[in-house]
Amino acid sequence: MERVLFRCVECNADASELHRDYSNGILKISICGSCHKPVDKYIEYDPVIILIDAILCKTQAFRHILFNTKINIHWKLCVFCLLCEAYLRWSRLQGSEQSADPADIIRYTTEWEFYGMFSLATLELAVFLGGVLAFLWLFRRHQGSNLELQLLLKALLLSCYAKLLLIPAIIWEHDYSPLCFALIRLFVLTSNSQAIRVTLNSSRRLSVLAVFVGLLLEIFAAQVFRTLLWTQQNSLQLW
Ligand SMILES: [Zn+2]
Fold first, then answer.
1. pLDDT tens digits for 143-184?
2. Residues having C-beta closer than 5 Å to ion ligand 1
3. Are residues 60 and 79 in the same domain?
4. How far is the CA of 187 from the centre of ligand 1 (A)?
5. Looking at the structure, do residues 53 and 92 belong to the same domain, yes or no?
6. Which candidate in 2, 69, 85, 115 could, as Cys together with 121 as Cys, close a disulfide (CB 3.0–4.6 Å)?
7. How far apart are the CA of 215 and the centre of ligand 1, in A?
8. Count of structural domains, the chain
9. Which residues contact 17 (CB under 8 A, 6 or more apart)?
């Protein structure tokens, strides 16, 4: 029978079980052999408290979610976050383009621009993730150790959950919305950095550097995509 491995949320040591089931229905939380603290105190906590600790970027909460649960919603969450971001970009585009041209009205109806923004957001996220993973893979290779790419990708996608905050920011749009969007972006990057740190058990400096490399590549890619689109639109207008 396959032995499932967990991690101690306090010291990251391997653990074979989170709780022990005694007879008479008595359950006892397992104690870590390394730090002598409960392996995972969060198994007794309410999900709301776990979520609050994750929002506060607590290492223990990240370890609980990534190593001791079978949460498998990262791809769905990723698509939902991309839809939120695409809607944000699309609504900004609609706000900046006030035109009475019938061709434009038809274009709004078909909402092709929304799908364009979705594709653009997807490409930019792919560049960010690719940059972070490539940087960490090269770093680990230099150190002579392997990288759990699948787990790291899952951690990065889950840690983008803060993009869901875009929904209330779009709904209650006000003068400070650009500041809110910038803060949400900063929060997502902080969460990404913490997810890398927990998954690899690395230093904060390395995780921040990896996120910074990914961000630089994403900004560069976004600039290239915009230039390409602008060139394409200009060439279509000339025709
Ligand atoms: Zn421990």
1. 888 888 899 999 999 999 988 888 888 788 777 778 888 999
2. 8, 10-11, 13, 32, 34-35
3. no
4. 28
5. no
6. 85
7. 33
8. 2
9. 6, 30, 39
